[in-house]
Amino acid sequence: MHPRLAADLAELPALLEATRVQATGILGRLDEQPVVPPLRLPAPEPLPEDGAGLSGALAEFTRTWAPLFSASPGPRYLGFVTGGVTPAALAGDWLTAAADQNPTSALDGAAPELERRTIGWLRDLFGLGTAHHGAFVSGATMSNTVGLAIAREWLGDRAGVSVAEEGAAALGRVTVLSGSPHSSIAKGLSMLGLGRTALTPVPTVQDREAVDLAALEQALTRVDGPCVVVANAGTVNTVDFDDLRAIAALRERHDFWLHVDAAFGGFAALSPDHADLVAGLDAADSICIDLHKWLNVPYDSAVQFTRHPALQVRVFQNAAAYLGPLGETPDHVHLTPENSRRLRALAAWFTLRAYGRAGHREIVQRNIACARALGEAIKTIPGLRLLAPVRLNVVCFTLAEEPTAERLAGLAAEMAEEAFLTPTTYAGVPALRAAFSNWRTSGTDIDRITGALKDCLDGSS
What is the pTM of this model? Predict the structure, then answer.
């Protein structure tokens, strides 16, 4: 054994304790450190011939890189839709690395069964029936892509071909209809060989991102060939929701696969006041839900559900003698593109076991209350205006005058130490988004964000 490895193995308990101290320091600074610090990158270095050992590497990381990381686990990181990491999820993630399980094969330990049971808990959390089967994937992009891949096989099955065996060309042209699709839908279509141009936009309701049902039915009437409808349960800019029940009812007159992108909007099911927004989710053929958003587990973690597990296996089946037969309960290696991966379920299992439905409901409801509070505050700040109602956990706003992308980028940069906001465009207007999904965020943070916005606008006037 290399002497550095041997030394680290001998001192592992003490070295892990030093790592714990460093991790605790990172988390302890979240409230006060700049949310996005100034980026002063160190000069590149060649790969060392002789390593520094864990102690030396930890010291260099602490000195050189840790101060440059954003406070993305913290309460005022409002960019994208990024959750933090609950204490239980953090513990689960540490143990995930320590146990180092590959849960894709039943030949090795109980990890695959823990994953199946965690999927069952998540299915219950989101109000889905037992007809839905699921698997863990890396994020919403992969979850959407897996759903679309199963849809592609379903469409081929109805046309008498197996796309998994014969390729996408055997299916021919596919039409994918959606009102406000996330960018990952087009990316998934590109990867699956269906092409970005398969995505056909459908008009939305006036002043909203929800699909216009009459326009959707008209589009379905014009479709000549295989069709997928991608419905949204929570759009990126304004967290708008398509009427899932009404879209599902259209299948009585039209033949299509219904995929629902509920990456973070699916968590509305936890709030009694908002659960109606996802009524009809269970009727979908496939569903995307991202867990490193509102479940507050570490990157990377998402889940996909489908009512068609046999078709899923047909797409992702991996044939190798060392894997054994499929059996009645296929291993996870046959359900997603990955043959090997970490035990993503463990962090989710820990946070669900630790806090249950009630604990995660409280996080969702508090985040919604924070978003509404910021929305109300923005209405009172001269120089700002809301671009859309605060429907759930995202606040979309812009400058009252001259809302150019450059001026908004300047405002976001001025805000960066106090809060991280991401740019967007809504209804043709450059804007900023504040997305609330962190378990730490509270009313105190809203006060700080509001104060910082006022100071930035006062300073620019």
Answer: 0.97
Give 403's contacts (C-beta < 8 A, 6+ positions apart).
Answer: 429, 430, 431
Under 8 Å between Cβ of 118 and 134? no
Q: What is the pLDDT of residues 98-150, one digit of tens each?
A: 999 999 998 889 999 999 999 999 999 999 999 999 999 999 999 999 999 99
**Domain of residue 56, residue span:** 3-71
Boundary (domain end) residue, out of 350, 384, 401: 350
Rounded CA-CA distance 410/123 in Å is 42
Residues 345 and 245 in one domain: yes
- The DSSP string of 71-95 is -TTSTTB-STT-----HHHHHHHHH
Q: Check: CB of residue 321 under 8 Å from CB of residue 92.
A: no
Residue 287 makes CB contacts below 8 A (sequence gap 6+) with: 126, 128, 132, 147, 259, 260, 262, 266, 281, 304, 305, 306
* Pair 214, 337 in one domain: yes
Last residue of one domain, picked from the residues 329, 350, 371: 350
| Rounded average pLDDT over 324-336 | 87
Exposure string of 41-76, with b = 16+ CB inside 10 Å and e = fewer, is: eeeeeeeeeeeebbbeebeeeeeeeeeeebbbbbbb
Residue 368: count of CB within 10 angstroms of its CB: 21
Residues 216-257 have pLDDT tens digits of 999 999 999 999 999 999 999 999 999 999 999 999 999 999
Q: Is residue 330, in this structure, part of any structural domain at all?
A: yes
